[in-house]
Specification:
The protein is of the alpha+beta class and 137 residues long. It contains 3 helices and 8 strands, in the order E-H-E-E-E-E-H-E-E-E-H. The N and C termini lie far apart (36 Å).
């Protein structure tokens, strides 16, 4: 369960899909207004192409990582409430995120539904997946 009481350390958010800077949609723009991008980060997990967006699940091996961006939210309670509605098919949880040599605890949205092995993005990077020949961009 997510605590209604957020503190400063809870202001970090890891994004790996349609909220990343290479997307230009209303929620990605809102995140850029309401947060400050800290940099490219990674999270242990498996990335899947779910059609219009990606989703992550827990890793099965130590070498499985997802690439994304780490943001510090200016008003975490407000921004996370809005993102919770946007990410309705996902569960928000705290996870360990790596940025360079440092490790942080950040919020991340994990997909709640079933995934197919066939849809796995082995690179762990949604941007490079979309830019590959035959990708969606």
């Amino acid at each position: 369960m997510i605590s209604a009481r957020l503190i400063e350390r809870d202001s970090l958010l890891f994004v790996y899909g349609t909220l990343r800077p290479f997307f230009d949609n209303p929620m990605a723009r809102r995140l850029r207004r309401e947060g400050r991008r800290i940099g490219v980060a990674s999270l242990a997990g498996r990335l899947y192409d779910l059609g219009r967006y990606p989703g992550i699940s827990r890793p099965r091996r130590r070498e499985e990582w997802v690439t994304g961006e780490l943001y510090r939210l200016r008003r975490p309670r407000h921004t996370l409430r809005v993102l919770d509605r946007y990410e309705a098919r996902f569960a928000r949880e705290l996870a360990r995120v790596r940025l360079g040599r440092r490790e942080y605890r950040a919020w991340v949205y994990r997909f709640r539904g079933p995934v197919r092995a066939l849809d796995r993005i082995a690179s762990g990077d949604y941007e490079s997946h979309l830019r590959r020949p035959g990708g969606d961009t």
